[in-house]
Each structure stands twice: as structure tokens, then as C-alpha cells.
């Protein structure tokens, strides 16, 4: 399970098991949580939520033709749909790329 900080970003994963064999478990690490938290000021400066920033960024990638997203509530569907019309300035794309580069690069 996760501990959620006041800003809504999960702080870290606690599983009770020292190792996790699932590939997704490697995503729940301090480096990734730090990167997500670093994106919050960018999202706020654009009056976007983090999910909206993420979708807008993904949809502006040259290799992406569409994004498959999930939602468990109607308001999430509306929030996700609103991101499709967001045009991110080149400076925001560059700043986001800079923050995400360490977690996008598999070493």
C-alpha cells in the first residue's frame, strides 16, 4: 500500500515483502516519486492537474498517436478529456522532459 502526502502524491511503497517480482514494482521508487513531485509546480503554473499534465505531455510525443487512459469516476473522465486540448509550450515540454529523463532512461 502507499502513504499519500498532503499534496496528493504518494510518498513511498510499503509492501511488507522485501522484494517484489512484479515488473511494475520497480516503478514505485523514490526516484520516480521525486520526479512526479517535481512536476507539480509545472502543472500548477498551467492550472492543470498532474494527470492532465501527464496526458497532455504524452499526447504531444511524436511517437504517440493516442493514449489509453482509465477512470473509475465520471469526473476523472471529464478531467482526462480536458487534457486533450491542452497545448504545452515548448519550454514546458523541455522542462518536463528534463525532469523525466532520469526515469525514462533505463540503466
Account of the protein in words:
With 107 residues, the chain is mainly α. Helices cover 48% and strands 7% of the residues. A two-stranded antiparallel sheet has the order 1-2. The longest helix is centred in the middle third of the chain and has 16 residues, at 30-45. The chain is globular. 8% of the residues are buried.
Biggest β-sheet strands, sense, barrel: 2 strands, antiparallel
For the terminal residues, how far apart are their CA atoms?
27 Å
Identify the overall geometry: globular
Mean pLDDT: 78
* Model regions low in confidence, pLDDT < 50 over at least 5 residues: 11-18
Going by helix content, strand content and strand pairing, the class is mainly alpha
Helix segment tally: 4
* Helical content (DSSP H or I, runs of 4+): 40-55%
Strand content: 5-15%
Give me the Rg, rounded. 15 Å
Q: How many beta strands in the DSSP annotation?
A: 2
What sequence of helices (H) and strands (E) makes up the elements? EEHHHH
- Placed side by side, the strands forming the largest sheet appear as 1-2
Amino acid at each position: 500500500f502507499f502513504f499519500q502526502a498532503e499534496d496528493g502524491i504518494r510518498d513511498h511503497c510499503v509492501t511488507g515483502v522485501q522484494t517484489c517480482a512484479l515488473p511494475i514494482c520497480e516503478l514505485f521508487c523514490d526516484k520516480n516519486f521525486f520526479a512526479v513531485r517535481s512536476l507539480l509546480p509545472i502543472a500548477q503554473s498551467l492550472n492543470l492537474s498532474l494527470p492532465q499534465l501527464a496526458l497532455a505531455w504524452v499526447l504531444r510525443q511524436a511517437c504517440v498517436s493516442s493514449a489509453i487512459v482509465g477512470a473509475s469516476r465520471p469526473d476523472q473522465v471529464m478531467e482526462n478529456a480536458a487534457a486533450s486540448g491542452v497545448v504545452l509550450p515548448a519550454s514546458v515540454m523541455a522542462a518536463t522532459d528534463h525532469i523525466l529523463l532520469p526515469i525514462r532512461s533505463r540503466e
